[in-house]
């Protein structure tokens, strides 16, 4: 019988754990950010190099980024890893083709990268959508309306109340109950990681907000 070791290092702690030699955290981080490698490779005009070879180059850069990432420097991991993966992929393409059609890699990397911002926004949208699926239908609807998610503009609590035949205070109660659930670590883990809000201080702030709301509701009973 084999023993499976499960590591539960949260947030940025998983990087320190992986760097200390934990294979569980390393593999989890590689899987969590594998989509970044595929996204970057998909953005390139591939020529002279097999797609899977570029994926492998990107995965090597991702692995090295995990082992060298220092959260204390203030950079997000996605930005840090993006540059390393991009550099590795473009160098592979440039060296394979050795053509003037490819711009100088170092010069290109210094240019503002709108693709990185687009990828980050897309990941955040996906994480929010996944979080909302954890909510009951009514709470999910109030968040959609209150914050203008999707194609619709934000609605005031009074507007939502008129639509649903509820008081503004009742809608506020529903919205805050939804936010309490969305702040839970088990639900918000991915979004917090993307927004660099997975540190101890951020979790403590979220917990304080939840406790304050719950205390206010107990006082009304």
What does this structure look like?
The chain folds into 2 domains: 10-111, Rna Polymerase Sigma Factor, Chain: A; 112-221, Orthogonal Bundle (Arc Repressor Mutant, subunit A). The protein has 12 helices and no strands. The protein has helices at residues 13-19, 23-32, 34-42, 51-68, 77-97, 105-109, 114-132, 137-147, 157-164, 168-183, 185-194, 200-220. It is elongated. Mean pLDDT is 78; it is low at 1-6.
Name given to the CATH homologous superfamily of the largest domain: Winged helix-like DNA-binding domain superfamily/Winged helix DNA-binding domain
Question: Total number of β-strand segments?
Answer: 0
Helix fraction bin? over 70%
Spans of 5+ residues with little confidence (pLDDT < 50)?
Answer: 1-6
Biggest sheet descriptor: none
The first-to-last residue Cα distance is 54 Å
What is the CATH fold-level name of the largest domain? Arc Repressor Mutant, subunit A
SSE topology sketch:
Elements: H1 13-19, H2 23-32, H3 34-42, H4 51-68, H5 77-97, H6 105-109, H7 114-132, H8 137-147, H9 157-164, H10 168-183, H11 185-194, H12 200-220
Helix pairs in contact: 1-2, 3-4, 3-5, 4-5, 7-11, 8-10, 9-10, 10-12
Q: Key features?
A:
221 residues; mainly alpha; Rna Polymerase Sigma Factor, Chain: A; Arc Repressor Mutant, subunit A; 2 domains; 0% strand; disordered N terminus
């Amino acid at each position: 019988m084999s023993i499976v070791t499960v590591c539960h290092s949260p947030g940025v702690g998983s990087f320190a754990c992986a760097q200390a030699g934990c294979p569980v955290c390393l593999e989890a981080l590689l899987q969590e950010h594998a989509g970044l490698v595929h996204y970057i490779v998909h953005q390139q005009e591939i020529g002279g190099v097999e797609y899977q070879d570029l994926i492998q180059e990107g995965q090597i850069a991702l692995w090295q980024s995990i082992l060298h990432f220092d959260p204390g420097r203030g950079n997000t991991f996605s930005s840090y890893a993006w540059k390393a993966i991009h550099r590795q992929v473009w160098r592979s393409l440039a060296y394979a083709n050795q053509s003037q059609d490819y711009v100088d890699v170092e010069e290109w990397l210094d240019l503002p990268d709108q693709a990185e911002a687009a990828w980050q926004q897309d990941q955040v949208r996906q994480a929010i959508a996944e979080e909302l699926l954890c909510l009951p239908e009514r709470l999910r609807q109030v968040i959609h309306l209150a914050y203008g998610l999707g194609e619709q503009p934000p609605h005031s609590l009074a507007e939502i109340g008129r639509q649903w035949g509820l008081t503004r205070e009742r809608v506020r109660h529903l919205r805050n109950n939804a936010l309490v659930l969305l702040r839970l670590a088990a639900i918000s883990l991915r979004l917090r990681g993307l927004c660099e809000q997975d540190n101890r201080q951020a979790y403590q702030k979220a917990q304080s907000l939840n406790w304050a709301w719950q205390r206010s509701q107990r006082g009304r009973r």
